[in-house]
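question for whoever is on the cluster today: can someone run the full assembly for these? two chains, 663 residues total. i dont have access anymore since they changed the login thing
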Amino acid sequence: MRASLPWQIALALLAVVTGGVLQLATAPGGGPGNVWPALGLVALAAAGTLTMGGRPVAQAVLLFIGAHGAAWLLLSGVAGHEGQAGASFYLALSGAWLLAWRCVTVLSMLKPASPNEKRLLGLIIPLIFGAWVLILWEAIVRGAGIPFLLLPPPSAIAERIGVSTAVLAADFRQTVLKAVLAGYIIGCGAGFIAAIAADRFVFLRRGLLPIGNMAAALPIIGVAPIMVMWFGFDWPSKAAVVVIMTFFPMLVNTVVGLSASGHMERDLMRTYASGYWPTLFKLRLPAAMPFIFNALKINSTLALIGAIVAEFFGTPVVGMGFRISTEVGRMNIDMVWAEIAVAALAGTLFYGVVALVERAVTFWHPSIRGG
Amino acid sequence: MDSFQSKIVPVGTLLAILVVAWYAFAVVLNGPFQRDLDRRAGETPGQLEFLMRTWSQPKPTLPAPHQVAQNFYKSTFTVKPWSNRSLIYHAWVTLSSTFVGFAFGAALGILIAVGIVHFASLDRSLMPWIITSQTIPILAIAPMVVVVFASIGITGLFPKALISTYLSFFPVAVGMVKGLRSPEVMHLDLMRTYNATRPQVFWKLRVPASLPFLFASMKVAVAASLVGAIVAELPTGAVAGIGAKLLNGAYYSQTIDIWAALVAGSLVAVMLVALVGLAGRITDYAMGGRPA
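^ ran it for u. tokens below:
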């Protein structure tokens, strides 16, 4: 057992001491409240962890409570004192942040035996990081009094989401449920069929593959204004953009995936006197599934981007891209952030659903079996 | 001869089919309007005459390839490169923010990757977010970034480059993490037997091993960076750049202009990717890699 002082703890204690000195110097009643309790909590937690060397779990719990309790105190103390935060406030904040960092470090060094604990740990660590992005954002924006126009604090964005749920839901329906889903299904389906055709005819494959590879680099999103002219302002034009954007990744990945099955397996199918189609369905398509799902995942993001950007070129008065571009013009930045939060959530969910289906379909693949 | 047989002939054939299909679609899409025009003018053109007319409308639904080529040639080679009508000028505006954004994005991506490889806590906490952030339609914030910066008086290159940075650092970070971790255990063990320090392992083993990954991901990043720059030009009120050209064309239904801008954007993209590829090959050669 090495008796050592982790640098995060050392820095946190230093921050507490300097923060305390500076807080003594400030006039009472000026600046955000709760700095003293926060400083105390950070100091207690930091000192406490030093006494429990051999018990990392207890350390982590204490650090977690200390860091987030202090952060909560600071955030509730800043209300009514926006823009008046002094150095002691930031020192207390950075002290709490260092504790959180130490907490993550301690957690990262844990080697849990059971897979469930491992999964839980793999969830907690990034969640702490994400929470601290929000905490620092909130505390700095409100502590320094950054103009609302420039960057609204997360709490204001959350409030806005709560207030305008109906508008956000309508935009979500228009953009995601109509344009993205339709375009995604048609685009991926077309890419898949083209890939099967390219696989059947060598000449087609040799011609299509270089073109498809090149198309990955092209700014395809630029066809959006043309599609709006062809298919009108409503969602079909957005779906068309999505179709074009998702077609090529699907084509290229499926063609590559179809050659993923091994020679041995293909020879085995030959000895069974299996024709092209039975071989395709029973061997080569299942073997290509990891590649196909890779394309489906890439496309889930591309589809959302395509639909939202296409809406910048003209829409009916509903849709996520429309809302973003008009609310930016009206300087309702919190509404824009709310829309972006919804878009991010939609994108993550979409990706997550595809990933779940992938786990179910390619259960045999080493990357999933082993994990 | 082999690559001629296996590559150029099929690609060329497909492209030729594409051009023919394009002309056919131009007839189909522009036909109704042309018939309408002819009827109003009281003319009854012959079949061939009708075809020619659908391929030479001033604002066609789908311009024929030669119209796009003419417009592209005219606005690239016949006007002064620094005039507002020149595609070279607009491409340069887009390219400059692409370059700045890409340079910062690549640097940031490499830095993050180095941090992730060396700090376990960063790896555990940051990596899941980097992967999650890939699933977020980042381009959606482009207009906001541009407008918010404009509201505090920062316009021009910087906001656009910021979006390009944001788009291009993800692929580089992910690729570099993979690359810096690519040395095999054998090689790492060898470095241990040499009593190599951590910086030595980093510079002499990890960095050289990561370069192929770096260039592969930089190809993706530079294309993403260009898309970011183009989209960032949309909300600026269409001042200059490929994106502005697209938006202007959309406002005034100048379809030929849109297509020409698209061609210019695609050429720029191909050029950028080729440049990164070339840099990769030169680096590979300088490090002693020889074609097998």
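summary bc i know u wont read the tokens: Chain A has a mean pLDDT of 83. Chain A is about 80% helix and 0% strand.
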